[in-house]
Amino acid sequence: MICTVFALSFLATSLFVNVITASSSTYSLTIRMKDAVPTRPDDLQCTAIKLDPEESYIIKLDPHASRQTAHHMMVYGCKDIPSHDSVWDCHQSDGYNTENSVCRGGERQILFAWANDAPAKTLPEDVGIRVSGATDIKYMVVQLHYASIFPEGVTDNSGITITLTHQRPPMQAGYLILANVGFIPPKQQAFPVESYCQYNADFPIYPIGYRTHSHELGYVTSGYRVRGGEWMEIGRMSPQLPQTMYNVSNPGMEIKQGDMLASRCTMNSMDRDDTTHIGATHHDEMCNFYIMYATYKQDILTTIICYQDTQSFSLTDIFSAEEIPSDASSLKGIPGAEKVLEHFHMTELI
């Protein structure tokens, strides 16, 4: 259940990489695309750097990207990479082992996700994302999703600056993601896409951030811990607003073995005439609720992802409508809600 990354030794001199020593134990690493040019709509391109072999911890992530250029940016940790070119085509997903994979062997760990001009993320004091050392995170890979082809002569140097430390903090950070497969029918004002999974690990975790990710149809996404029939909100946000790691709704919340985790993406497909499938392109959709957590567990963590099928699962299969929080599909109380209404040509909150 972790994401991870650190750096100090370099993959290639052609990469835009700088390391600044701020103290004897803290470093900042910047990695950027080198004049990347998408060759097709929804192009996925990667660049990478080899990390310092000594165990390290990420404590801050500062993206350098614009929604005018990039649909989204992912930062992954890999044991090995398929290419040592300064930029390579990386459209293959997990499970593939080709020259177009993100990682050699296909396995990758999520370190950071960015979209919609999201700001930097600083982890709480005494928490860090573990990389290098005994982990399988030996390389950091930055993947850019370009929605469209650039005008002639335009290139991209998007990237990220990551601050790391060699000092082991009391807690390490990891990711747990609720997600979906399936499709969204057209002409729906509030179509629910829902996930529900049991937390089975034998150690408690403490959410320290959450992120919602959908494309054009995402109206609002909410996530909850369900324990003994009681729902506690982890977070609720519109993916049409900056897709950053927001502070959780209930700081100090514990998730322990046996707790259930629930999410709902409310989709508005009123402007679509055809079915929209969950997939990777900007014309497709996604329903992802990211939970960044802290734990005292010192074992190596890996990202946990839980999927449900949109067409075969609904929270109302388990709960009555009255048991599900009444604001699970609402923008009420969310700053910036008026921008979301404008996006969907709406005048009132649902």
Secondary structure elements and pairings:
Elements: E1 16-21, E2 26-32, E3 43-50, E4 56-64, E5 72-78, E6 88-89, E7 109-114, E8 121-122, E9 127-131, E10 139-146, E11 159-165, E12 171-181, E13 183-184, E14 191-198, E15 206-213, E16 218-227, E17 230-237, E18 260-267, E19 276-277, E20 288-295, E21 304-309, H1 337-343
Walk me through what this model shows:
The chain has 350 residues and is mostly beta strands. The protein folds into two domains: 16-169, Sandwich (Jelly Rolls); 173-343, Jelly Rolls, CATH 2.60.120.230. It is 2% helix and 39% strand. It has one helix and 21 strands. The strands form four sheets. Strands 1, 2, 4, 8, 9, 11, 12, 15, 20 and 21 form a ten-stranded mixed β-sheet that branches. Strands 6-3-10-5-7 form a five-stranded antiparallel β-sheet, with no helix packed on it. Residues 1-21 have low confidence and may be disordered.
Low-pLDDT sequence parts:
1-21
Radius of gyration: 20 Å
How many domains make up the coordinates?
2
Strand content: 35-45%
Number of strands: 21
Sheet with most strands: 10 strands, mixed
CATH topology of the largest domain: Jelly Rolls
Mean pLDDT rating: 90
Distance between the termini: 35 Å
Q: What overall form do the CA principal axes indicate?
A: globular
Return the structural class. Answer: mainly beta
Series of H and E elements: EEEEEEEEEEEEEEEEEEEEEH
Percent range for helical residues?
under 10%
CATH architecture of the largest domain: Sandwich
Number of helices: 1
**What is the level 1 CATH name of the largest domain?**
Mainly Beta
Protein name: peptidylglycine monooxygenase
Family: Belongs to the copper type II ascorbate-dependent monooxygenase family.
Disulfide bonds: 46-90, 78-103, 197-306, 265-287
Domain Copper type II ascorbate-dependent monooxygenase N-terminal: 31-148
